[in-house]
Amino acid sequence: MIQRILLGVNGSIAAYKAAQLVRLLTGQGLEVRVLMSRGAQAFVTPLTFQALSGQPVASELLDAGQESAMGHIELARWADLILIAPASANSLARLAVGLADDLLGAVCLASRAPLWLAPAMNSAMWQHPASQANLALLQQRGAHLLEPERGELACGEQGDGRMMEPAQILQRLLAAQPDQSKPDPLRPTPLKGQRALVTAGPTQEPLDPVRYLGNRSSGKMGYALAEALRDAGAEVCLISGPVALPGPAGVERILVEQALQMHRAVLDRVQAGGVDLFIACAAVADYRPVRVATEKIKKGSASLHLELQPNPDILAEVAALPAGLRPFCVGFAAETQDLEQQAEAKRQAKRVDLLAANRVGPGLGFGQEDNQLLLLWADGRLELPLLPKRQLAQRLVEQLVKLSAASCQPPAKNSSWPLKAGS
Ligand code: PMT
Fold first, then answer.
1. Cα separation of 362 and 334, whole Å?
2. What topology is assigned to 195-406 in CATH?
3. Residue spans per domain, the chain
4. Helix H or strand E segment including 213
5. Which residue, of 41, 293, 318, 418, is most buried by count of CB atoms within 10 Å of its CB?
6. Neighbour count for residue 27 (Cβ, 10 Å)
7. What does the pLDDT look like over 189-222, one tens digit per residue?
8. Residue 171 and residue 388 in contact, taking contact as beta carbons nearer than 8 Å
9. 155, 237, 281, 408: which one is catalytic?
10. Ligand 1: does its nearest atom lie under 6 Å from the Cβ of 391?
C-alpha cells in the first residue's frame, strides 16, 4: 500500500500545479516529501511546498545540511512511490540516461519505488523523437506515464504538453493502488498462450498532399486494451492509426494511416492464422475520397464537392472468416444517440461476439481519460461505470476472458507471429 510519496518538481510553469497536488495527496492521508530542482525554485518557492507538506524540502545533492536531515539514499528508501510532476524534457532525458549528478537523478537511481511521470513541456519538445524515445525507454523500465493534455501552453501555442490536472493525477494514483481485497500479489494470466490483435486510434484519409479526413480518436482506449491484454498474459499486436502515444512496452505495434492500410495489416495477420482474439477499437473512417489530388487543392469562390467511397469494414470482414481462422471478435460502437439500440444493431450486423458501446460527443469518449461502456453479447449485457480507460480495459478483458472461454473456439495455431519490442 502506498503511504509515502516523494514528489519531484522540475522547472516549468506547471510547478504551481504541483502545490495543489501536494494538498490533494496530503488530504488523502499520504505523507509527501518534495524535492525541487533549481529550475523549479524559479517558479515556486520551497517555502510553499514546506508549508503544504509539513516537511522540509530537499533540493541539493551535495549540501551537508540537507544530507544530514535525510540523505538521498534515505529518501530513496523512504519513498513508496516517486512522482515527478511536472517532469521536464530535460528531466526525462537525464532519467533515461541514468544521470546521478543532481538530487532527483540520484534518488531515482537509488530507489526501487515505482516511478510516475507527469510531463509538461512545449508540444514540439514533447513530440520530438528524442523525448519520445527517452519516455519509451523509461516506460520499458517500468515507469508510469501520466499523459500530458492538449490545450493552451505557457509559450502561447496550442498543443499537447500541458501537465495533467492534479485531481486527475490523484485519481490515477489511487486507481493504481493494489486491490487490498486480493492479497495475492501474483497476477493471474488467463490469456497466456493466446494471441490478440487490437486496432486503435483514428485513420486519416488523404484529400491532397496536406489535408485529410480524420476524427478525434486519441488511441487511449485501444492502447489501454492492448496493455490489459498483455497484462492478462496474451501476446499482443497493436495496429494503430496516427496518435501521440508511445507504443506500450512488450506489445508489437504496427503504425498505419489510412483505413485501407489498417484493413490490409489486420487481414494479413488474421489470415496467416493463429489470432485468437480481435478487438476493433479504432475509429476507422467509413468513407475515403474517390480522388486524392496530387497538388494542394486551391481555394476558390465556388463551393467544393468531395466524392467519397466506402471503406471496407475491417471488423465485419474478420468476423465473417471461416471457423479456424476467425478469432473471438470484440467490436466497439461509438454513438451519439439511442446507445443500446444502435449498438445492438451493430452487434448483430457485424456478427461480433462482444460489443462495447460508448457515448461520444463533446467531453465524451474521444480523447478523454475516462470512459463508460455498455457491453452486449448474445445473451447478456453489463454496464461498466465511468472509469479511467486503463481500468475500464481491465474490466472489459475480464468479461472477454469469460465469454471467449465459454465460446470454446478451436484455436488455429500457427507459429509465424513475430513478437518485437514496442515500437
Ligand atoms: O481513442 P480514444 O480517444 O480513446 O476514444 C475511444 C473511442 C471512442 C474511439 C472508442 O472507445 C470507440 O468507440 N471506438 C470505435 C469507434 C468507431 O469507429 O465506432 P463505429 O461505431 O463507427 O464502428 C463500429 C465498429 O466497427 C468499431 O469496432 C470499428 O473499429 C469497426 N469498424 C468501423 C468501420 C470500418 N471501416 N471498419 C471497422 O472495423
1. 13
2. Rossmann fold (3.40.50)
3. 4-176, 195-406
4. strand 212-213
5. 318
6. 9
7. 899 999 999 999 999 999 999 999 999 999 999 9
8. yes
9. 155
10. no
